[in-house]
Amino acid sequence: MNFFYKIKGYVINMKMRKKLILIYTISAVIPIITLGIVMTSSMKNMVINRAVTEANTNNDRIKYRFGELFKLMSEVSDRLYTDEKLQKVATTRYTIPWQVVEAYENYKEFDSLLRSYKEIKSIRFYADNDTLLDNSQIIGTTSEIKSKKWYQVAIAKRGRSYWQYVYDELNGGKNLCLTKYIKDLRGNPVGVLVIYVDNQYLQSIIKEEPFETIITLDKDKILISNNKNKNKKINIRYLENSAAENSQTIYNGRRYRLISENFADSQADNAFQVMTMLRVDVITASVNQVGLLGVCIIIFSIILAAVLIVIFSSAFTRRILLLRGEMDRVVSGDLEVKDRGIKRDDEIGILFQDLDYMIISIKQLIHEVYEEKIYKEQIKNKQKEIEFKMLASQINPHFLYNTLETIRMEAHYNGQYKIAEVVKSLGKMLRRNLEVSYKLVTLKSEIELLNNYLYIQKFRMEDRVSYDIQIDFDIDKYYVLPLLLQPIVENAVVHGLENKSHGGKIVLKIERKDKFLRILIRDNGAGMTKMKLYELREKLYSAEHSVEGKSIGLINVHNRIKLYYGERYGLKILSKYMEGTQVYIYLPVKGDEGVKYIGS
């Protein structure tokens, strides 16, 4: 206890400068080092877990793609299993070759399936009928074919589907195929059906995978792999055992974390496996970067704490000067006064409190003035709403839409299908424009409106104009103000491409850029001179512009965006004479998720 009191007395009697140094050393350096260690460790675990989670997600996506393939192949095989025309072609005893040729020409089911499904490379039927002529689809069985292992396995399965990985003797190379032994309704054998899966389609399933991925059949046949080292043979058994242990392993001189999942076709007696190989050195590289960042943060924090110690240790002797400095800031218009060690119970502290009370009063007065300004701005917004509503409600939308629908039906009835489609698009576009509500709409509906408009313009201008819409994320639940895009696209067609004889193009691109949702509308039309572009920008960024007539142009769109979303958002226009114009629309990166009324 005496030692404690001695330490306490020593600290109490220390000079203020030494006290501040001691306090900041204990309260800054030690917590910062501890925080840095904890943060680095947490980030390391997070990166590793994220890689494993991503791999599991990718495996689920691969299994889903294979599930769709299984479903398709099952439907095709069942369809051919009950195909009486196929059974008739395969079992008929022909007397002359011409009869076989005629039967083949009349049977088009295989060709129809190949045209319909890109997943299928080829379909073959092996029939035990020596009167058949061989072609690329229906083949008579020979003793050589019957001796093949895949043929014997298909027979042994007695009508159940079975996946095999066999060599395609007609096209060359090994292929995954579904085999099935087919019998007629009386149980008599007809032949063996073989449906080959397209290798390019299989490869596309794992083409974009970020990690090394292997798909196997029955755990001993590699179907596809995106392993970059194609020349080295893959030891499936070794990898399977390592994955089962759920630990890291050394393979080809590198350390891997293996993730393996089994899946199967419910209609077949096979097992498939997807195996993902995560290179530990690649994952560790990013973790090391995080660790290095943590060390830098710790060093920076310690240096910052040392600087703060020096600053605050001398603050007590400079309180008068600091108070004067805060008062000067208030005079210059900065009302965010900070307590830099001034506030105490002495006379200087009282003066600082009085200054603080005065600033509170000034802020309150400014707040009242600001509320008054907001109220006036709301009145302006309401006026804009009324003006916009009046523009959108001039025509009875039901009468116009019903009239266009009558025209479309008449054109369709008379065989003018293209005209009918154009009238249908026009009806959708006008109905949307004329019946526009005063609620926010989805960005997807705005894009559908543009599709209808551009389809009509392409029909009108034929090959003189084309368009391309590029969207890199889901816009179904992104809500925006109505009629933001069409006026700009319409302006690009009328003023940019109308006089272009050929090669006109409009590109619409929607992307997230920094803290904005950016919509680009670009045309390769007439463009603008520097003077005309300057004048347009002057009008666009000036204080007020009213909407004239029935048009809702660039200025109206720009003002509506600023009034609803704020001053940070709006339009940006770039243009070069005879090269084209680019209009950028900047909106908040996160759209309103609920349907709201404009101005609410």
Automatic annotation (TrEMBL):
Its EC number is 2.7.13.3. Its main location: membrane. It catalyses: ATP + protein L-histidine = ADP + protein N-phospho-L-histidine. It is found in: Membrane. The chain crosses the membrane at residues 21-40, 292-317. PANTHER family: SENSOR HISTIDINE KINASE YPDA. Residues 314-367 form the HAMP domain. GO terms for molecular function: phosphorelay sensor kinase activity. The keyword 4Fe-4S does not apply. The gene is ypdA_3. This is histidine kinase. Residues 485-591 form the Histidine kinase domain. The keyword Transcription regulation does not apply. It holds the Pfam family His_kinase. Keywords: Kinase, Membrane, Phosphoprotein, Transferase, Transmembrane, Transmembrane helix, Two-component regulatory system.
